[in-house]
User: What shape does this take?
Amino acid sequence: MKKEIIISGFGGQGVMSIGKSLVEAGVSEGLEVTWAPSYGPEMRGGTANCSVVLSDKPVGSPLFTHPTELIAMNLPSLEKFEPLVVEHGLIFVNSSVVSERVARQDVRAIYVPCSKIADEVGNGKVANMVMLGAYIAATGALREETIRQMIESMFTGPKAKLVPLNMEALKRGMACAQ
Assistant: This one.
């Protein structure tokens, strides 16, 4: 198994957090992983992205040109990276923000109303957890239990009150991809 994933969106949408979560869960499951963030002018309101590799074999390079999956949290991300996804790849689209449809017929598209669901569960900041749930449900790349344990370990002390919110966001995202 080898997943080469681009996660992209506006700064503040949690795209780096999605990438870090995938990598940390991958390490917990004994996978070989890489995480390469792309910063720069993107931090000032443009599109930020990161590249993640999850593999059951050693990873030769954190860089790749054709992702197996794309997570597009905004329209500029979809427009920029859709052409690069491999044939029969998978594209996740935050349909709360992106009204366009994936143009390619040789990939599978999953539309997840991340922002809408995040607002419904009580906090717009968990849109990234909604998308993470959709990703793990659709790909099976990581176990749900690993992600749940990671969430519990991320939010401790006074932040422990955020665990149920993030768990609900994860669950609702998983339901979108089934």
